[in-house]
Amino acid sequence: MTDETKTGKDGTGVAKQRTETVIRPESMILDKAIVASFTTLLLEPDPGAAAGPGTCIPLVGWLERRDAGLDLRGIGVIANGADDLAGLEAHLMDVPVIALQFPVFSDGRAYSHTYRLRKTWRYPGPIIAFGDVLRDQLLYMSRVGINGFYMRADQKLEESLAAFRLYSAYYQYNDVAR
Amino acid sequence: MEFFGYLLAMYRYSPMDLQFVNERVAEFRDQVRRRNAGELSEDEFRPLRLMNGLYMQRHAYMLRVAIPYGFLNSTQMRKLGAIAEKYDRGFGHFTTRQNLQYNWLKLEEVPDLLQELADVEMNGIQTSGNCVRNITSDPYAGVARDELLDCRPYCEILRQYVALHPEFMYLPRKFKIAFSGATEDRAATEFHDIGIKAVHGPSGELGFQVLVGGGLGRTPRIGQVVREFLPLEDLVSYTEAILRVYNLHGRRDNKFKARIKILVGALGIDEFRRQVEAEWAPIAGEKLDEERVSAVVRQFNDVVFDVTAATDQRFRERALTDTSFRRWIERNVKPHRVPGYNVVLVSLKRPKIAPGDVFTHEFDALADLMDRYNQGYCTALYNQNVCLQYVRNADLEAVYDALATLGMATGNMGTIQDLICCPGLDFCSLANASSIPIAKQLIERFADLDEAYEYGTVDIKMSGCINACGHHHVGDIGILGIDKHGAEFYQIAIGGSPGTGPGDPASLAEIIGPAVALDAVIDTVERIMDHYVEVRRGAESFRDAVRRVGVADFKQYLAGVTA
Fold this sequence. Notes:
The complex is a heterodimer.
Chain A: E1 22-23, E2 27-30, E3 33-36, E4 40-42, E5 55-58, H1 59-67, E6 75-79, E7 98-102, H2 109-120, E8 127-131, H3 138-144, E9 148-150, H4 157-160
Parallel strand pairs in A: 4-5, 5-6, 6-7, 7-8, 8-9
Antiparallel strand pairs in A: 1-4, 2-3, 2-9
Chain B: E1 8-11, H1 15-36, H2 42-50, E2 54-56, E3 61-66, E4 71-73, H3 74-87, E5 91-94, E6 99-105, H4 110-119, E7 136-137, H5 152-162, E8 177-180, E9 194-200, E10 206-212, E11 224-231, H6 235-249, H7 260-267, H8 269-280, H9 290-298, E12 300-302, H10 315-321, H11 323-332, E13 333-335, E14 341-346, E15 357-359, H12 360-373, E16 377-380, E17 386-392, H13 396-405, E18 420-421, H14 436-445, H15 449-454, E19 460-463, E20 477-484, E21 487-494, E22 510-511, E23 516-517, H16 521-535, H17 542-549, H18 551-562
Parallel strand pairs in B: 7-8, 8-9, 18-19, 19-20
Antiparallel strand pairs in B: 1-12, 2-3, 3-6, 4-16, 5-6, 5-15, 9-10, 10-11, 13-14, 14-17, 16-17, 20-21, 21-22, 21-23
Helix pairs in contact in B: 1-2, 1-4, 3-4, 3-12, 5-9, 6-8, 7-8, 10-11, 16-18
């Protein structure tokens, strides 16, 4: 979706991207293997009836539905860097999948969100990175605990798997994934 | 006080370190290949090369090589010279953050260069980029008389922790950490994103005081205390908590407001501290165990000392008759914690040579000196000099004579000649103005050592743009190059200090008048020194005199003489 992403003029990584509201690539990387993607990301603030099993919807809408007592079975959460995920902590066991947006690859906030999800709150389900997801950041994403990748359209999935084989050991003794 | 029971020399790579650095080179080699094949755009490649220390400068690629905690061995020194010869134009440049820079590189040759560095246990990992940069420390660590704790094992533990830390490679902006383990702060910890000072705790135990939010650049800030006392064992988890708060909440919309100092300023130190403590709570149980510390300590070589070294006092005879030698002893030789040993400053402030520059044959000559007289080591200093820190009394004369042939034995350390400057317009693509030519002019103008001594200790710091690589904010005299309608102008400020201890608090230099043209910089500095000589009381230093009479007094004087 972000094939038009480019770095802002001042180099801060403010992305200008085509607004695509439904994201579901054919293939994805999951647990270091290429598989068919398994969830559709609905980015509209209120996707209405489109939300159902096998989709993810934005965090705010997900929490509103939760508060309204609506059926959330099979519906995952989409979050971006600016979201406060603390509100989700109490409900994590009901979340089948979490999709974290990388509006531009240099925006590192989702790494810390992942750390909290995995290490502090012990979220066991899949976490998918989407947006400006590139081969050269895959290893970092994977090591904080992201295990699913909707890669940017121009990325070659097969070649990208090489990222997981770059290093034989790491210094961090408290990694989630190794 | 000696914490480890013996003196540590230099950290040597473990098998894991070596493998890691080799794999990092291989990763970068492939990234360079893909960039040249058009598979990686320049925007995508830029942060990847920066995290390996590689910049695109005005004329060519520049590589910044980390010198961990300033320590180099003679094999590395020779290799640095050989690389300068093979890949650059025969010289390297010592920076203000214990790095060495090469300025004339070709991208396609950089992977080979990095492999040569890796072969001698060196790298450029995280010397740039929006990640935790190479960690710096007191250059006299391990030998200083006023040392509470040789922090380097802790620096190394933290370096390993942040090396390709998956969560913190894309921070809002660069992140610099410095350690000081002595009473005198020689690492400018007050001006780092995190400054860590060894202190004694309530019951006399050693720990760290942690400062946060200091920095220079366009928004200079003095660091604030985020934690008065942190047990040694909590160093890593507490740093991690700070980094996590910053990664999540530091601004990413404007690169000029993205450093942690802006976040700390916006939240206030109390709220910032509250957030850090909250982030720390769940991980505070992750203590550094003794085994981990000892494993790192074991990677440091020991130093062997001659217990009879102090009995040799022959150098004093020569000092009686040889003025240059006496001056060198007085200015360039510093006290050592072991009797009969000395810390010898090697002056890289030489006429007609940019501060910090060393040429190929000089790398070799220095390496020979290191081998013969300094147990094979030397240390790079924050002020663009190097030092030999294990010189016996008996060897002082020989070291002096050898350095003199290299022009590195001028007794000018701490004098007005001992200025620091960034590469400026000669190399840097960010610069607005030259700094090296001005530095050369200043060294030439104040070449007379009698005059230089007359002024005592004076610290001139110069930057070619507001990014402040030359640390102009914390100079006794700070000179900043600016662009004024396409011409190079210089803003001159006085009264700065990096803050070396209780008697010398950190302060930012204040501007003393309108910016001056290139050809008026030297005159202005001269007038500042004239006024200092007028107002000083006895042997009062420049810094103390400025603090007593105030910057306004100098301002008024300068306005008067130029009117």
